[in-house]
């Protein structure tokens, strides 16, 4: 089945643009007709092979953007994960729908669609026809920005609350403590009046401030019959407070303990403040990325360069960038040349040369040269903007373990309330203790049992861990990856672009003429190939220029499709190509030449002959080289008992050669994208968790089919939606890092949960007065302090994950040390 | 301008898509059919000159 769709392309301004877009789409296997006049791309594709999001991504990859619209709808009957999955799958099959995100937690669905193919009404109709009831439709909402704003507002509020309540309650505690110890602070001798003048007003202030934060949610949770942590806080502090007022008024015969309610409340506020602060700190990865975004840009307006704030730059503006500056927008080079450091996106340390027609990306650094950029994307639409969004989404998702903890915390609250009532009843009615003492024990139970630490254990580890991963180039898109990884037993690797570099490189040069070096052969070939655009040609030219060989232009040049090239320079004829071309120039393939070629082919590479004036002078082996880090990664996984499989569309023989060099036994070759999906499906049905590692371009379908999809994100593929995890740095070792990181995060979660539970279980009986006869008991203010400490210690413990290091980082550090030892430092004068 | 050695048509070498190399010399063709015909028997066409479009000429 073939589908035809029209996309509006943003940012095309020249005839070359249309060719670039067309070429990028052709790589995807999509028939495309791109028109500059209408800014439209008309594409014909097979929806079972290519998804609309792949088309959008291909256009973005070329440096342009696609006009899309968004619709956010609240769905009344979106109740479970299953509903969510069904909805996403069904909607993604609708013509014109590009991407769908759904969440049953807030019952929302976000549909990104192509308005040239489907209208907003069409999308709504499609949702309705699937049996979902829409209760509200919102347009392009700045949900993430609002979330960010709320978070910083919350932090600011909690800071103010802490600054007011903490000194007040500490002063109160010192006042009462020193009084009890026999010192005589002001007004101490006044008795009842003293409490009404100092204890009650100060604790009232503290409680009032705390109530701003905890009272409403606590009441709401009681009404819903699902009391949580806030409810416990309110019960604990208010019971101490009301008791104290009663005793001040002489209604009960006991000393009041105003300070207890104040201290508990202020420590809990402090705990919340620290939690918010640490959470903000763990969001550093996002912040670091956000810092790469420029604040202003130099734009050409009316023939002169003006500096304008970044939010005033529009698509189509010409932006000028000079050395040492970060590129502020995504776009296409219009004029000039430059060396650009793209390492923040690709991890590739070598600067990339950019000349007119090349795509450049916001956040990358211009090192040398100067360019004028035709802007195609700004702000949130840039590749950088999309990365930031992905990291944020991941940090806000919840793994299953957290959902279990949340539910447990709910039961826990009821249990604690029951224990508190029992405690009071026991001491007052059975043990015959004074009302004040019985009340104190009950209050201590309520306060100590606050499950804040339980609530913090998982999110603090996830947020910190994933932040670390993002720094190392391992972008985890969903917290559920933490649940998925332990179930994985089989890891399937795509070959081209994943285990191999993905583009041909020169792997071997053989000279067949005595006295002529391999470099000379390579140079001759490079001269002949210089003006060809074939991937083999660029491999040869790249290899020669990497070696610093001065490649000259040939006098004339002829490209013979299917054979190779033939070029003339200084009266010499150079032919570079296959056997057919060699016959064409009457060059005899002697046994030496055939032997050299056979050796190259046995290694799984392509043999290219070089003939000079009708005589075969050398053979060059060109092929897709194995990634240098691939053997290490495969060894690591096999040593840990994973089943490793290579899945490729390549010929069986070539695949076997590569597999055997990597130590992979199981190979599935000559597989089409659909075959790949079937293979993954079959393996999953065998009952073992399957992870798929692919380069995301042609593996999108199998990546989403696998239990865990890991996408290699070279360059602009970062923003791909196919994988659960994206290896931004295009380094296969990210797979190892991912497994290591998730193990560290899980260990930390279990460790945190263990301590949080032990803490509560051990301290509840003590708070209830079980050891009262031995003189050990917890006054409510001490319970409050202990509770606050448990939350703080869990959050701090999660911070130890910040010491986690990626493999690449460790190696770089080791390299740095030896380099510093070997090379003298440059003088500071320069 | 170059001449298609099979059919005798004028071919612009800078635009030609169908080419082959014989004895170190590049030949240009108007169509894949001419190219295939030439590669079958290059000596014949070099000796006898263009014979018209393949499939149309008499043997």
Structure notes:
The complex is a heterodimer of chains A (830) and B (59). By secondary structure, chain A is of the alpha+beta class. Helix content of chain A is 50%, strand content 21%. Chain A has 27 helices and 28 strands. In chain A, the strands form five sheets. In chain A, strands 9, 10, 11, 12, 13, 14 and 15 form a seven-stranded antiparallel β-sheet that branches. A seven-stranded mixed β-sheet of chain A has the order 16-28-27-26-17-24-25, sandwiched between helices. In chain A, strands 18-23-22-21-20-19 form a six-stranded antiparallel β-sheet. In chain A, strand 19 and strand 20 (564-569) form a beta hairpin. Chain A is elongated and about 115 Å long. The two termini of chain A are 65 Å apart. In chain A, 45% of the residues are buried. Chain B is of the alpha+beta class and 59 residues long. Chain B contains two helices and four strands. Chain B has a two-stranded antiparallel ribbon with strand order 1-2. In chain B, strands 3-4 form a two-stranded antiparallel ribbon. In chain B, strand 1 (2-3) and strand 2 (10-11) form a beta hairpin. The longest helix of chain B is centred in the middle third of the chain and has 9 residues, at 32-40. Chain B starts with a strand and ends in an 11-residue tail after the last helix. The relative contact order of chain B is 0.26. Chain A binds chain B through residues 558-561, 563, 566, 573, 575, 581, 584-586, 614, and chain B through 13, 17-24, 26.
């Amino acid at each position: 089945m073939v589908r035809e769709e029209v996309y509006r392309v943003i940012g095309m301004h020249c005839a070359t643009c249309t060719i670039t877009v067309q070429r990028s789409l052709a790589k995807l296997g999509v028939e495309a007709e791109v028109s500059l006049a209408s800014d439209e791309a008309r594409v014909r594709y097979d929806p079972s092979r290519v998804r609309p999001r792949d088309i959008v991504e291909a256009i973005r990859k070329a440096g342009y953007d696609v006009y899309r619209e968004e619709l956010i709808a609240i769905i009344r009957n979106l109740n479970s994960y299953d509903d969510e999955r069904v909805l996403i799958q069904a909607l993604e099959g609708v013509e014109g729908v590009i991407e769908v995100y759904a969440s049953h937690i807030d019952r929302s669905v976000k549909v990104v669609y192509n308005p040239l193919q489907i209208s907003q009404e069409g999308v709504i109709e499609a949702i309705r026809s699937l049996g979902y009831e829409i209760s509200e439709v919102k347009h392009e909402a700045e949900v993430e920005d609002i979330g960010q704003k709320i978070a910083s507002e919350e932090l600011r509020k909690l800071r103010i609350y802490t600054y007011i309540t903490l000194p007040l309650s500490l002063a109160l505690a010192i006042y009462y403590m020193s009084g009890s110890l026999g010192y005589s602070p002001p007004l101490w001798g006044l008795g009842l009046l003293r409490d009404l003048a100092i204890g009650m007003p100060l604790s009232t202030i503290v409680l009032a401030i705390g109530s701003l934060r905890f009272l409403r949610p606590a009441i709401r949770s009681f009404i819903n019959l699902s009391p949580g942590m806030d409810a416990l806080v309110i019960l604990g502090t208010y019971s101490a407070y009301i008791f104290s007022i009663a005793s001040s008024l002489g209604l009960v015969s006991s000393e009041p303990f105003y300070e207890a309610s104040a201290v508990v409340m202020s420590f809990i506020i402090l705990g919340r403040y620290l939690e918010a602060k640490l959470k903000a700190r763990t969001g550093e990865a996002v912040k670091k990325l956000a810092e790469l975004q420029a604040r202003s840009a130099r734009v050409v307006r009316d023939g002169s360069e003006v500096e304008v704030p970044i939010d005033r730059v529009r698509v189509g503006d010409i932006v000028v960038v000079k050395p040492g500056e970060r590129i502020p927008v995504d776009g296409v080079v219009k004029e000039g040349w430059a060396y650009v450091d793209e390492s923040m996106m690709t991890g590739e340390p070598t600067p990339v040369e950019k000349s007119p027609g090349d795509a450049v990306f916001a956040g990358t650094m211009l090192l040398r040269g100067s360019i004028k950029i035709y802007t195609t994307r700004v702000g949130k639409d840039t590749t950088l903007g999309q990365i930031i969004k992905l990291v944020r989404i991941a940090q806000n998702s919840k793994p299953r373990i957290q959902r279990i903890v949340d539910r447990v915390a709910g039961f826990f609250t009821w249990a604690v309330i029951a224990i508190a009532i029992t405690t009071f009843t026991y001491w007052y009615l059975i043990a015959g203790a004074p009302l004040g003492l019985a009340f104190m024990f009950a209050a201590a139970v309520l306060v100590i049992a606050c499950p804040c630490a339980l609530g913090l254990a998982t999110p603090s580890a996830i947020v910190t861990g994933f932040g670390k991963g993002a720094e190392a180039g391992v972008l985890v898109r969903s917290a559920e990856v933490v649940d998925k990884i332990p179930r994985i037993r089989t890891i399937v690797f795509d070959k081209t672009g994943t285990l191999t570099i993905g583009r041909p490189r020169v792997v071997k040069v053989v000279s067949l003429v005595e006295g002529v070096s391999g470099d000379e052969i390579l140079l001759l070939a490079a001269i002949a190939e210089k003006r060809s655009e074939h991937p083999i040609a660029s491999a040869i030219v790249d290899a020669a220029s990497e070696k610093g060989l001065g490649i000259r232009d040939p006098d004339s040049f002829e490209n013979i499709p299917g054979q190779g090239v033939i070029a003339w320079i200084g009266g010499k004829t150079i032919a570079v190509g296959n056997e057919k071309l060699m016959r064409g120039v009457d060059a005899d393939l002697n046994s030496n030449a055939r032997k050299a070629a056979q050796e190259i082919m046995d290694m799984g590479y392509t043999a290219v002959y070089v003939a000079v004036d009708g005589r075969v002078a050398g053979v060059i082996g060109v092929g897709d080289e194995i990634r240098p880090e691939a053997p290490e990664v495969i060894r690591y996984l096999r040593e840990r008992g994973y089943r490793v499989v290579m899945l490729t569309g390549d010929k069986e023989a070539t695949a076997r050669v590569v597999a055997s060099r990597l130590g992979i036994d199981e190979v599935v070759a000559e597989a089409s994208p659909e075959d790949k999906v079937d293979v993954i499906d079959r393996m999953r049905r065998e009952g073992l968790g399957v992870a798929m590692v692919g380069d995301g371009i042609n593996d999108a379908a199998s990546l989403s089919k696998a239990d865990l999809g890991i996408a290699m994100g070279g360059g602009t593929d970062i923003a791909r939606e196919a994988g659960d995890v994206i290896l931004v740095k295009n380094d296969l070792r990210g797979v190892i890092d991912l497994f290591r990181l998730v193990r560290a995060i899980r260990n930390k979660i279990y460790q945190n949960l263990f301590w949080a539970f032990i803490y509560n279980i051990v301290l509840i009986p003590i708070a209830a007065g079980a050891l009262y006869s031995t003189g050990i008991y917890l006054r409510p203010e001490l319970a409050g302090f202990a509770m606050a400490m448990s939350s703080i210690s869990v959050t701090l413990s999660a911070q130890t994950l910040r010491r986690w290091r990626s493999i690449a980082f460790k190696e770089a550090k080791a390299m740095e040390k030896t380099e510093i030892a070997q090379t003298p430092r440059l003088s500071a004068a320069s | 301008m170059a001449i298609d050695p099979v059919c005798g048509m004028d071919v612009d070498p800078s635009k030609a898509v169908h080419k082959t190399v014989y004895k170190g010399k590049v030949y240009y063709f108007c169509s894949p059919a001419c190219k295939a015909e030439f590669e079958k028997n290059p000596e014949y066409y070099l000796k006898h000159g263009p014979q018209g479009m393949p499939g149309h000429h008499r043997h």
